[in-house]
Amino acid sequence: MKTVHTIKELREHLDQAPARPVFVPTMGNLHEGHLALVRRARELGAPKGAPVVASIFVNRLQFGPNEDFDTYPRTLERDAQLLAQAGCDVLFAPSEAELYPQPQGYKVVPPTELADILEGAFRPGFFTGVCTVVHKLFNIVQPGTAIFGKKDYQQLMVLRNMVQQMGLPIEVLGGETLRADDGLALSSRNGYLSPAERSEAVQLSAALRRVQEAVVAQRAAGGLSPDSLALLEQQAMATLASRGWKPDYVLVRRQRDLLVPTAQDLAAQAPLVVLTAARLGSTRLIDNLEL
Which one of 5, 13, 34, 135 is the catalytic residue? Predict the structure, then answer.
């Protein structure tokens, strides 16, 4: 695997490739979920000889003023070893000065109806930061395919819509959420949890499963309605709060646009997703399950 730190060196290297890259953008501190995306990229790229490119960049633009930008783990040497073992061909690890040589005045601002709900409601400006850095990375890497994890469900939808509306010739794919044996979704922020918090953290995915099971049962009985969904959401929030969590939301939304499902949607059994974000101690975790 080749590691490059400048845009010029990356472009010179990729100019020699027989096909456009398959790209896996990350912020580093990698776990098995990231590596599964790299292995999938390897499978997709191999038939065409397309190189697998991963990026590691902790993007200041997507962190709020009271979030963990300064303390976010930087583990480049370890990450590089893991990427090489997973089949990555090129690691692009730019410095902040390389990617943002001057203040980033031009930004990609996603539509409010998608970017200001759920995560966007609790992290103002987050998706502007995400879209700006990803669009910039896309321009630099020029991939044919990019892969993002489904754990960041809203982010995946925002980026897919950005690619579509901007007319970018890139296929955006979602990789399934990988979980620990007890059900906790793998996340770089899991490393912030104390041993006691790690034991408790499984309750987040358990809350989602209870909502999932209740939705399936109510669908089968013909009793699923907007009111019954709202009650399930409230019960899940209350259960987490009773265990010491500080939940931001537990919400059931339509998969296609993350809007609130109507009675007609429920009658037609439209695909749904239940999403959650909650803080355990000082660590904020997110998760989701498709219904």
Answer: 34
Residue 34 bears catalytic tag: yes
| The three-state (H, E, C) secondary structure of the chain, written as one string | CEEECCHHHHHHHHCCCCCCCEEEEECCCCCHHHHHHHHHHHHHHHHHCCCEEEEECCCHHHCCCCCCCCCCCCCHHHHHHHHHHHCCCEEECCCHHHHCCCCCCCCCCCCHHHHCCCHHHHCCCHHHHHHHHHHHHHHHHCCCEEEEECCCHHHHHHHHHHHHHHCCCCEEEEECCCECCCCCECCHHHHHCCHHHHHHHHHHHHHHHHHHHHHHHHHHHCCCCHHHHHHHHHHHHHHHHHCCCEEEEEEEEECCCCCCCCHHHHHCCCCEEEEEEEEECCEEEEEEEEC
Q: So what's the pLDDT on residue 66? A: 84
pLDDT means per 10 residues, the chain with 291 residues, are 98 95 97 97 95 97 92 95 98 97 96 96 97 98 98 98 98 97 96 97 98 95 94 98 98 97 95 98 97 92
